[in-house]
Amino acid sequence: MLSLMLQVQMLLTALSAVLPLIPAEQRARAAEFLNVAARALAVGGTIAGNLDDLASKLAAIRGDVEAMAAAGRAVTPGELDAAILHVRTASAAFRAALETAEAGPA
Fold this sequence. Notes:
The chain is mostly helical. It has one domain (2-103). The chain is built from 4 helices and no strands. It is elongated, with a radius of gyration of 14 Å.
């Protein structure tokens, strides 16, 4: 659980560095990064299994965001598309984990 929370915190920190580099017309798409962080927080207290997998998915997203920030230039639509793919994969995993946890034991 601690690993997941740490990844969320680090992702949010990385996002604060990259948001100014995302062109204004693409900034709405950056909300997907925030949505996946919010899902991670919602799921975190609900599930015990798969926490390491979910934390690694967040780490991949954070790596994308940190790479964009380190480039120090405007983020291209292609770079944003590649990062959003990781976000959507993680988002689906968080959604599935939450549904499983809410369903309870069979």
